[in-house]
Write a structure and sequence with these properties.
Structural class: alpha+beta
Number of helices: 10
Largest sheet: 4 strands, antiparallel
Order of helices and strands: HHHEEEEEEHEEHHHEHHEEH
Helix content: 40-55%
Strand order of the largest sheet: 1-8-3-6
Radius of gyration: 19 Å
Length: 232
């Protein structure tokens, strides 16, 4: 692995406080690989052989059952995914595929578990990251159970607006079919929801979203940090 990647990985909270020798031990068997779009990285049900880190690009986590498929989350740089399966030495509960050209670090799961037993700072960081992941799952469940499809779309647009710099015009990061799946909607329901949001100053042209009624949309969405802010 090129030295330039080590500082990026080391900057993650998961690795920032661990001993240098243990970090070197963890990186010894790791490697970086570039993947084109729409490549399946892992399949649900398979053994968790690697902890993966997205250095560039983006990755979709998704699940399938009985010929149905749903999008679970999007992983963006720089962050890990499938940490729980790595620590538990358990099968993956989700599949993952690249959304765009992506650079991924692969760390053997057995090395992660070995260093977990040896480095207290690393172990505490893992517990913290798993706790954050659990809280994100709870917030996602609350959104799906407590909000209507129109409220879910409104709040998603406000979150995406903040993520892209707060401008009134921004582009959706992926196609509408995947957005509908992520929000627990059908594509038809998503189309109707976008039309309904026109009354709150929202228009969409292909992937470009324009919010002309910021205050109206925010009043309708009723965003709350207990659902929408993944930092707490």
């Amino acid at each position: 692995m090129a030295d330039s990647y080590f500082s990026d990985i080391r900057s993650l909270a998961l690795f920032s406080e661990m001993e240098d020798a243990r970090f070197d031990q963890l990186m010894r068997g790791s490697y970086v690989q570039n993947f084109p779009p729409q490549v399946e990285l892992i399949s649900e049900g398979d053994p968790s052989d690697f902890l993966q880190i997205v250095l560039s690009g983006s990755v979709e986590l998704y699940a399938a059952w009985n010929r149905r498929e749903t999008s679970m989350a999007t992983v963006r740089p720089i962050s890990t995914f499938i940490l729980a399966a790595t620590i538990r030495d358990a099968p993956y509960l989700m599949s993952a595929r690249t959304i765009e050209k992506s650079r991924i670090v692969l760390i053997p799961s057995r090395d992660v578990r070995a260093v977990f037993d040896l480095d207290g700072a690393f172990a505490r960081a893992i517990v913290g990251e798993l706790a954050d992941s659990y809280r994100r799952v709870v917030k996602t469940a609350k959104e799906l159970k407590l909000r209507t499809s129109l409220e879910r779309l409104a709040n998603y647009l406000l979150r995406e607006q903040r993520r892209t710099g707060g401008r009134p015009v921004f582009d959706l990061p992926f196609d509408k079919k995947r957005l509908a799946s992520l929000l627990g909607m059908t594509p038809e329901n998503l189309s109707r929801a976008f039309k309904s949001l026109q009354g709150y100053g929202v228009t969409i042209d292909a992937a470009r979203v324009t919010i002309q009624g910021q205050a109206e949309l925010e009043r309708f969405a009723k965003a709350t940090p207990l659902i929408d802010d993944h930092m707490i």
